[in-house]
Design goal:
Elements: E1 4-8, E2 22-25, H1 26-31, E3 42-45, H2 55-65, E4 69-71, H3 74-79, H4 83-86, H5 90-103, E5 112-117, E6 120-121, H6 127-136, E7 141-149, E8 151-159, H7 170-182, E9 196-201, H8 213-226, E10 228-233, E11 246-249, H9 258-268, E12 272-274, H10 277-283, H11 286-295, E13 303-306, H12 314-317, E14 322-325, E15 335-338, H13 341-352, E16 358-362, E17 368-375, E18 378-386, E19 395-397, E20 403-405, E21 408-411, H14 418-429, E22 435-443, E23 446-453, H15 469-487
Helix pairs in contact: 5-6, 8-15
């Protein structure tokens, strides 16, 4: 006889002709433990439902108390009871889903449902997804609802019972059960518990995020390799923030939205946080940056702080074309080039509707901008961002809301001009010890700092092109360094 014990609500529901399996009802398993004939059984709990404190739940609970191996375990039952609990596993599963869909010659065109029996998919094209879901949640029968809304997402994971089987699914279930009970029973590999946990704040609806969804997975994998569990969170998770040891903001920051509130709360809680509130405060306002660079003699394009009264005299100090900027624009938003007085007055009037003060800056044409990534006062990557086609900026925003971006060239820090890197590191050091992207222009007059970004792009295939996965590990190691310092007695919560 097989060493497997199958628990069902009624013996009649198990009609799969396996005389080598011991079948027992939930009632007998709970009330008559002596009825189990198999010694040290491997239990498959196929109860009708696993609701908390229900018969199916008690079967798994008692199996664990009797030191018997069982699927699903109580932990799996509880994890699958609410999406808010099993959400932690969705990013990895959704990455597998999207990777598979991209490789398909004829992918689904609408939302669909997968059925997984012991990790075997009813649609074999998605076998890697259901296999991984079974590794994470050892649930014998699982319904995986997949929705298409802007992008592909796993809407829900739902345990099933034998009563849920359709006639056309019985052969699939029988084959999956046979394969599972005849194979060597293997416990999923237990991962060492993480040393720390980190929340990674992002906005999945952001059209120009600092890091794509694919890149967020790179950070998560780097965290796994280094012993830190990284979980993507969103704006709605503000009240959960204190549950984590660290916060990494991966969405466009602003002083007047939730990103700054998240950073302030994380700092108050003693968490390691990038971007820290001071960095956001200093970097998001170009007026502050202009004064900071000037006061510290860091080379920058000639810049004038302008109010409404000063518009009439701008052209006396800066020749056309002139660049006008709102103080807190990002990704080339709120930046305009004017060619004459008519354009100057009209554009300035529009910008003054958003801010009492704007910036006027001399225009420097270059084929590309330098971007130096600086972390804790050390350069970690260098890129050349080329201007968008037939445009004077890296990002061209069209009137229909769409945008175009120029190409790029990524290099190791040692391959970049030494002076570019040194000026960038000096400029970033004026802000703090966080993660910054320093933008510079280089021409026959020298090297000039254009901007310091507190939330620089880190994206797969661009900034990581040369360092690959090591770039993500460098950033995660900095969080660990800060967290280790905290636990060794430096400032911060216990």
């Amino acid at each position: 006889m097989s060493s497997h014990l199958i628990i069902v609500d009624r013996s009649s529901t198990f009609k799969f002709g396996r005389t080598d399996l011991e079948i027992i009802t939930t009632k007998d398993y709970i009330a008559r433990p002596e009825a189990v004939r198999t010694r040290t059984p491997k239990i498959v709990n196929l109860s009708r439902a696993y609701s908390y404190l229900g018969a199916g739940y008690y079967c798994s609970l008692l199996a664990e108390a009797r030191t018997q191996k069982v699927i699903p375990t109580v932990k799996t039952i509880l994890d699958l009871s609410q999406k808010s609990i099993y959400r932690y596993a969705l990013p990895e599963l959704e990455e597998l889903l999207r990777r598979r869909l991209k490789r398909m010659a004829q992918p689904p065109e609408a939302s669909f449902t997968l059925y997984s029996f012991f990790g075997t998919a009813d649609d074999r094209r998605f076998q890697d997804l259901t296999r991984r879901a079974f590794d994470v949640f050892r649930c014998p029968m699982l319904k995986i609802q997949i929705r298409l809304k802007d992008d592909w997402h796993i809407h829900s994971l739902q345990p099933l019972s034998l009563d849920d089987l359709r006639p056309d699914q019985e052969d699939h279930f029988r084959a999956s059960l046979d394969a599972y009970t005849k194979a060597t029973w293997r416990e999923p590999t237990e991962k060492a518990p993480p040393r720390y946990t980190m929340a990674m704040l992002h906005n999945p609806k952001d059209e120009l995020p600092p890091s794509s969804a694919k890149t967020l997975q790179k950070f998560i994998k780097a965290g796994e390799a280094l012993g830190i569990a990284i979980e993507p969170i969103e704006k709605k998770d503000y009240l959960r923030l204190a549950e984590y040891d660290a916060l990494f903001i991966r969405e466009t920051t602003s002083l007047d939205d939730h990103t700054y509130r998240f950073a302030k709360k994380a700092e108050k809680e003693g968490m390691a946080v990038i971007d820290d509130p001071n960095s956001i405060l200093r970097c998001t306002n170009k007026v502050y940056l202009a004064e900071l660079l000037r006061a510290n003699k860091v080379p920058a394009p000639k810049t004038i702080i302008v109010d409404k009264a000063k518009v009439a005299t701008i052209e006396q100090d800066i020749p056309y074309p002139i660049v006008l900027k709102i103080p807190d624009g990002s990704f080339s938003r709120g930046v305009y080039k004017v060619q004459n007085r008519g354009e100057l007055e009209a554009t300035a009037a529009t910008l003054f509707e958003e801010s009492d003060v704007i910036l006027a800056q001399e225009f420097m044409y270059t084929e590309f901008d330098w971007r130096v990534g600086v972390l804790n006062r050390q350069p970690i990557f260098v890129c050349q961002y080329l201007m968008a086609k037939k445009h004077w900026q890296i990002v061209k925003h069209n009137s229909d809301g769409r945008f175009e971006q120029g190409s790029f060239k990524t290099m190791l820090v040692d391959e970049a001009p030494k002076a570019v890197v040194e000026i960038a590191v000096k400029a970033a050091g004026l802000i703090g010890n966080g993660l910054y992207g320093v933008d510079l222009k280089q021409n026959d007059r020298g090297i000039f700092v254009i901007e310091i970004n507190d939330n620089p792009n880190i994206d797969t295939g661009v900034e990581d092109l040369r360092l690959k996965d090591e770039l993500y590990k460098i950033i995660v190691r900095e969080f660990i360094r800060r967290l280790d310092g905290r636990t060794n007695g430096e400032a911060g919560r216990s």
